[in-house]
Fold this sequence. Notes:
The complex is a heterodimer of chains A (245) and B (547).
Chain A: H1 2-19, E1 23-24, H2 28-36, E2 38-39, H3 43-54, E3 59-70, E4 73-84, E5 88-95, E6 98-105, E7 108-113, E8 116-119, H4 128-138, E9 144-152, E10 155-165, E11 173-174, E12 180-181, E13 184-192, E14 198-209, E15 213-224, H5 236-243
Antiparallel strand pairs in A: 2-9, 3-4, 3-15, 4-5, 5-6, 6-7, 7-8, 9-10, 10-13, 11-12, 13-14, 14-15
Chain B: H1 2-55, H2 58-81, H3 86-107, H4 112-128, H5 131-134, E1 140-147, E2 160-164, E3 170-177, H6 184-192, H7 198-206, E4 212-219, E5 224-228, H8 231-234, E6 250-257, E7 260-267, H9 271-278, H10 284-305, E8 317-320, E9 323-328, E10 331-336, E11 341-346, E12 358-363, E13 366-371, E14 378-383, E15 394-397, E16 406-409, E17 415-419, E18 425-430, E19 437-442, E20 449-455, E21 464-472, E22 475-482, E23 487-493, E24 501-506, E25 511-517, H11 522-546
Antiparallel strand pairs in B: 1-25, 2-3, 3-4, 4-5, 4-7, 6-7, 8-9, 9-10, 11-12, 12-13, 13-14, 15-16, 16-17, 17-18, 19-20, 20-21, 21-22, 23-24, 24-25
Helix pairs in contact in B: 1-2, 1-4, 1-11, 2-3, 2-4, 3-4, 6-7
Keywords (chain B): Membrane, Transmembrane, Transmembrane helix
Transmembrane segments (chain B): 12-31, 37-56, 63-82, 88-107, 114-131, 520-539
Signal peptide (chain A): 1-16
Amino acid sequence: MKRSLSIGLVSLFAMALISGCGLTSTPTALTSQIVARTVDPNGLSQVESALLGVSNDHSYQVKAGMTVAAGHYLRRISYYGYVSLPGFVSMDETIGGVDYQIYQMNNFAYAKTGGKWSPIQPITDLTPWTSMLALLHSHPPRVVYTLPQQTLVSWPCYVYQFRANDLNTSLTKLGAKGKLIAHQALYTVYVDVKDGKLRQIQVQSTVGVPGLGTASLESTELLFNYNKIVPMSAPSDLMTQIELP
Amino acid sequence: MKNRKIRRIGIGLGIVLYSIWATLFYQLTFTGWTLEYSYYGVAMVVGLSLLFMYAFPKRDRRVVVRFTLYAVILSLGIANFAPAAGMWRIIDTIVFIILAIGLGRWLVPVRMGWQLLTLVSLLLFEMWIPLSDVNLLTAFNVNYVGHLSSQDAQVPSIPVTVIPNSRGLQTMITIRGHRPVPHEAQTLIDAMATSGNPTLTKDAIIQLQHSYDLISIKPGKVFFHTSLATPQQLARTSVDSLAMIDFPFSQPHFLSVEGNVRMYVTLAKDPGYYTSMLLNPGTLSTAVGQMALQTAATTQEEWKAIGGNTQNSVQGLSLQNGYLSGSYQGHPIHVKTVGVTILGIKPLLPSHISTEPQAVVEGDNVIQVISLGARPHVIATLNGSYLHPLTTDLVFADVTGNGSDAMLINTVPAQIVQLTPSGTWKTLWVSGRSTFRFEAVLPRAGGDLIIANSPSLISQNPIRYLGGYVYQNGTLNTVFRSYHGNLVDLHVVHILNGSPQILTSVYAHQEIILLSQSKIPWYPVVLVVYGFVVLAGLVRRTRGVKA
């Protein structure tokens, strides 16, 4: 009797002890990434040479995701696919929980959803590095940071980060002091330590939507298997859909 | 004779209450501890179970332990077939009852009549409150659960909002999967000839099976009443809370069909455009930014066309052409600001600094505070960064109980910031877990009760469960935990009389739930009952030993 009572008391005490724990404040969680980065005077040229280094490659594989947060919601698109220049694309996409498949061979471009293929506008710009180089040339970032090395999947990478103005001026807005402010994004570029190839591009940005407030974007695209992709022939169900009466 | 009857009623009542207690104890204590304290929780569960078994003298142990197990197994079994629909539900129920009787005969040395009573009472109990929602009872009463069928993956959680009604309370406005009726497509085809927007009508026909009715839900005498939303109701409904489905990648559309509004969702662009966007990272931020502006503008346009409310004014103030303008308590306001939406009019400064509350507006990754006193102007600006952007995902709360509000902001990680009288910001608290989210705030003397979705204390699993916290000296102290995951989009509402309720949507379950604060603290109650049960066993044991 006495023993069981003491067991009971001990367990109740242990319970009270654990549930009494509160959630303490961890201010470093907000600043850790800023603290870890340093200004790198050679950063810009490193990023440029990584982009130029892949610009002669003729094919690659891509795994990517794009998240937009607005209001209470967070919405995501994910991608996985193969690209071979000049005009081959095979891509799986998930948008709003629905799967889409894209097959393109030059001007022959189809998208599949709900088990049915339909023609789409062919995708023309298939080289991610082109738009990045154009961005760096038109508005070279004033500061390029370097972050601690990171390993993506199995590739150790140098990490560079910079802010740059948009190429396009359509989202330029009037600032608080009456000056025009260019729309910007934060770019994080991952360069492979071993072969110097462009490994990943991360884009973070925001836009103010009237009535809805800030919508924030975070996109990550991982590039791999450079020069190892061979164009595939069209999916058999697409052929069947086209050929069968 | 009479005594025997009373005794039988007593035993029956005891069995009903005991089986419900066993269910509650299992859900609130065992499930809760395991989820919160991981292995330690499992150890505590084993400890309590052993103590329970040890308490009873040997001859009682067999009956009590087996009956308790039987009741818990039945509760879990009922919860498993409850989600089945239509014919399957009936088949499942029959099979389940046969299995339950079989299990009872084999496992439980209790008369068949009592076993059936246990089964029926647990069935009724779970019809009243599903087992998965039992976990909410630590802090809430479940007032209403609305199942709003829809199969579309684009709508992972049902959006719901509230509008004021004539009784001084609020009515829920939400969407429900539309069930096409015969000849409906033909009616729509005929309507196309006279439609102001034939393309919209055409798409509505194509999307007929994936379309939604806008409905209103309000409490009746016994049940909640669901009906199609009237034009008068929609004229008071803002579209933002309903149309954020897959924003900005998908575009919601609204169409008036014979006086009732239908909604359907399409991709904002063709699937190739999304690939093209991705393969041009240098122009991605522009492309997504434009898509967000375009989707929002089209939504507003179509909402306006069906007579919905597009006025974005808060207490007489609105944002126009870069100014906050209107009149507040009789005096005119016209202040230049970068805000694009009004977050609220809140007392961010203590009343001895400013007797008037402040207008809080948000622009592109920035929050501005505007005084509404004699000389209205921007008194403070809080800038977000690209790494920790400021969206409208925040709540205001009087965390210290001094009458002024702090902002509980869901950056990653979430943080609490407070405006100081000098116009600077003070960070009161930063979450150590990236998945922690502030959801809603219930007023409470001495510091508001903060409702948050928070991960388990010990496990690194990112799954969040509802919790209630109060702020005290830099720490959020736990008031309650309700182990119900997946509750999203929480709003504080006044749908029923009395203290405010919480309206929430269940992620991936096409359900909305209305919760009110519980007066009965079920969690300590079930623990105390456990204490009594163990004590009763010990008393019997000592008596048995003496005899």
